[in-house]
Amino acid sequence: MSSSISRNKSQEPQGEFSANVEQRESTGKIFEIIFLLGLSIGLVVLAVLVFDVFKDGLGRLLSPGFLTETPSRFPDRGGIRPAIFGSMLLGGLVMLISVPIGVGAALYLEEYAPKAWWTDIIEINVSNLAGVPSIVYGLLGLGVFNYLLNFGPALLSGALTLSLLSLPVIIVTAREAIRAVPDSLRQASYGLGTTKWQTVWSHVLPYAIPGILTGVIISISRAIGDAASLIVVGAVSFLTFNPGLFQRFMALPIQIYTYITRPEPGFANAAAASIIVLLLLILVLNGTAIYLRQRFSTFK
Amino acid sequence: MQNTNFSNQFNGASRRSLEKQASDDIQEKIIEAILFCCALISVLTTFGIVFIIFRVTFDFFQEVSFAQFFLDTKWTPLFAEKHFGIWPLINGTLMTTAIAMLVAIPLGLCSAIYLAEYASPKVARILRPAVELLGGVPTVVYGYFALLFVTPVLRLFLPLEIFNALSAGLMMGIMISPTVGSISLDAIQSVPRSLREGAYAIGVTKLETIIKVVLPAALSGIAASIILGISRAVGETMTVLIAAGQEPRISLNPFQSVETMTAYMAQISGGDSPRGSVNYNTLYAVGAVLFLITLGLNVVSHWISNRFREKYD
């Protein structure tokens, strides 16, 4: 009885196996190519996108005054200086606000927080906030900064809104970097009689900096590219001066959006030229991050 | 300072060193309190969002009934004859999201499988950040590309309107594919080698191992990544605002212009509806629906990845 079962079992797969191994292997090869194709489609689209943007925008970008003048009603005149200033100011402020808070929160959650129900709540909170759409942050900014604190639709409201938007990403990545610091390092520091903060400041943080920087750069580039929340907070599409902290403001993504929605034909090229500037700005940020990361990770 | 403190302690605890320690302790307490406040900001942010959105939404529902909001099939708050049916906006959101996911799921999974199973570590180190670059491009740029490149190209052989759900959805799919891809990749990579080797040992090909062993084992992570992708597509604003148009309608035709919840929100905040008017309050009512949908999706995604995480050692 038992032998007949085992014979049946061994016969069936044998028939299948020997007959079409080659065919199955070649199906495998075909699918390998399909997977690679799937991976490349996105990259090809990205390449076409960059090519298209440069083709449409390079001429306008190089035209005199595009980077140094204020916007104009005419597509082939004027420039995007207020938007560039706005974006750089926003990016700088976001960094100043969200990096200390984000790293502080990460340090608290990793190094200080006791295991309790309320620390769990903070943790769940952070991960949920990372999934809240940017336009909803816009509503928060509009309600809290524009009306409650009475800043109005000013650059500061935009910067604070973008800071809240980028906090969760910074916290999550900084936590991962801090968690990756080996415990032996902390123990060695404590062994010298240091206090907790001395250990954190002089041992844990320097070791975690490369990882923290990665998160910072990701979130700052996202903040600089974000338009949805700024539209809600009240960024304007036309400025004749460089924005200040308490004044109405522009930003590159908003400028791009405005140019795209203009019906006259030349504005598409101006949009493309502004996109090149925005992409370069993000590229510079990322390049700096990679450089700093390599510099700081030498002593690992 | 820490050195004197250290040696004093060992030379017998004098009063001064004890005082120093105490001041150190206070300093430590202050630092801990500051760090705690940093962490608290995330909780305050959530409270802020919930409070602000739902307070105005409450005002909105004083003037517009639930029935008008959830049962009407027209969305015309800016017209003389006002209708407040949310369904056309949800219809637009669902359609662009569905198209985006039809692109993002296969592309994301293909790149995850290729990077995890086929690419050599060297190649993967180059390809992975390259793919993730897609998610770092500002969404307004995808909107530009969808409206001024994808739509004209598709119009050569499809009867598309200038603003349409299809182009916007396609670009959103490309943009979201790294989200699906990188979380799926983590899930696939955490499937232990022994499972694959077990499969190879009984004479199964690589593809069969992937489809019948690796993917089922990574299923919870993949499902979580897909739901997170849906959530991102639902909340994405600029691409749909630029490329999908602003015509709220109930339709399943992707060639037509539609309006999503996010596009409507951007439209109304760019306009000049006075604060406190019903028009203005629709911004918050739609925002509340959007917030609840994305929150629900994020929670489900977390729940799946925690609840069904396969535990291997």
What does this structure look like?
The complex is a heterodimer of chains A (300) and B (313). Chain A is mainly alpha-helical and 300 residues long. In chain A, 77% of the residues lie in helices and 0% in strands. Chain A has eleven helices and no strands. Chain A has helices at 2-19, 21-62, 81-112, 117-129, 134-148, 155-179, 183-191, 196-225, 228-233, 252-261, 266-296. Chain B is mainly alpha-helical and 313 residues long. Helices cover 76% and strands 0% of the residues of chain B. Chain B contains 13 helices and no strands. The interface between A and B is large, with 92 and 89 residues.
Terminal CA distance of chain A:
65 Å
Major β-sheet annotation of chain B: none
Q: Helix/strand-derived class of chain B?
A: mainly alpha
Percent of residues in β-strands of chain B: under 5%
Oligomer: heterodimer
Would you kindly provide a brief summary of this structure?
Chain A is mostly helical and 300 residues long. Chain A has helices at residues 2-19, 21-62, 81-112, 117-129, 134-148, 155-179, 183-191, 196-225, 228-233, 252-261, 266-296.
